Amino acid sequence: MPVYDNKTDFLSLGIEVVVQSIYHSKTNCTICLEPLDMVETTPSTGSADHDHGSDQDTPLHAAVRIKACNHVHGAECLAAWLEVGNTCPICNRMLFVPPFEEPITQDVVDDVIQALRDVADEEDISDVLARLVFEDQTTGATRRQQFEAKVAAQRKQTEAQERNREFDDFLLYEDDFLDSDVEDWFPEDYEGDENEDSGEDGDDEKEVEEDEE
């Protein structure tokens, strides 16, 4: 699965709503530890499913599944988590590219100089701002390099896992093919073929002897 370019793309393409089902097990959200609304209520169970892991009056919240890793979380809890992060709360898999800070522009510098002109010398303010801009650019470049390296490593790992899975599927198919060949082979058929061949050889030898006589 890809690392999405931004959170909006991830929320629209990278998650799916978990539909209630009688086959789901009762599960708590890993973020808030409250029960998730995953188990379908049936006439036989009544409201028993809503008593799981919490007070009866505690409302269950909708569950969503992250497609990349199949981990399930509460929809509201995951949305809150992604306000400050960009990874799965369970496996720490990167889900989307984090927003990088906007660089300090000349307009920002001019606004700061204008605001501090009455309390400090304009040249001193400019020197301080120039140093801050340089530090900001250096730090931003370092963060981007680290992030790009992490994304590249994650994609390489995903590709390796897909190749291994395809290879395992190929081995399973090959084993099934060999098993089918063995099942179609019967020893008695082989022995019958041998007897027929030997009979034909014997007849040929008799014909040769008669011709010689």
TrEMBL record:
- Gene3D superfamilies linked to this entry: Zinc/RING finger domain, C3HC4 (zinc finger)
Instruction: Give the molecular function GO annotations.
Output: zinc ion binding
Region of interest: Disordered? 182-213
The alphabetized UniProt keywords are: Metal-binding, Zinc, Zinc-finger
* Top-level taxon: Eukaryota
Tell me the organism's taxonomic lineage. Eukaryota, Fungi, Dikarya, Ascomycota, Pezizomycotina
Supply the PROSITE patterns for this chain: ZF_RING_2 (PS50089)
- The name on file for this protein is RING-type domain-containing protein
Which residue intervals define the domain RING-type in the entry? 29-92
| The species this protein was found in | Pseudopithomyces chartarum
Cited InterPro entries: Znf_RING, Znf_RING/FYVE/PHD
